[in-house]
Amino acid sequence: MKTLNILWQLPQYFVSLAVLTYFSLSKRVMKKHRVTGVTAKHSSVYYIRGRHKRAFSSGEIIFVYSGYQYGSERYREVVRHEYGHAMQSACLGWLYLPVIGLPSLLVTGISSSLAEKCYFEKWADELAAGVDLKIIDT
After folding, report:
1. I need a surface site. Which of 57, 87, 93, 122 has the fewest CB within 10 A?
2. Rounded distance, CA 85 to CA 128, Å?
3. What is the pLDDT of residues 99-129, one digit of tens each?
4. Do the Cβ atoms of 133 and 36 come closer than 8 Å?
5. Closest-CA residue to 89 (of 33, 34, 128)
């Protein structure tokens, strides 16, 4: 089943592995943990060194910058939202990047407040809202 999941989300895995390789080689990964929920089952969360208050996900891999205080309520909210994107990825498969990823990247680059009003961000919040999300340190 895991093999089918990887094939279903293959473009997202390639993107996230490239980003993770970059962050690992530049020694910016500060912490890794897992979150568990429903549709996407579990996701890996990488806490990245940086002053930015940014987060993004590609498939089941979530990146959160250290501008968010690790473990804070706001951090948990951000992880929950990004988990919603992981759920979108599990639903859309190969369509995730053109339907969610690229529009999100473009709109967020223009204005993060504008992005919050877009369908892809609202949908991620709605998907994750009812999930009993558990953060597990690894």
Report:
1. 122
2. 8
3. 999 998 888 888 777 877 899 999 999 999 8
4. yes
5. 128
What mean pLDDT is reported for the chain?
Answer: 89
Secondary structure (DSSP) of 60-105: TEEEEETTSPTTSHHHHHHHHHHHHHHHHHHHHGGGHIIIIIHHHH
pLDDT tens-place string over residues 22-38:
999 999 999 998 888 76
pTM of the model: 0.90
Burial class (CB in 10 A: 0-12, 13-18, 19+), 3: exposed
Cα angle at 66 between 56 and 61, to 5 degrees?
Answer: 30
Whether 51 has a pLDDT exceeding 80, the answer reads yes
27 close to 45: Cβ distance less than 8 angstroms: no
Tokens 């579990």 correspond to what residue?
A: 42
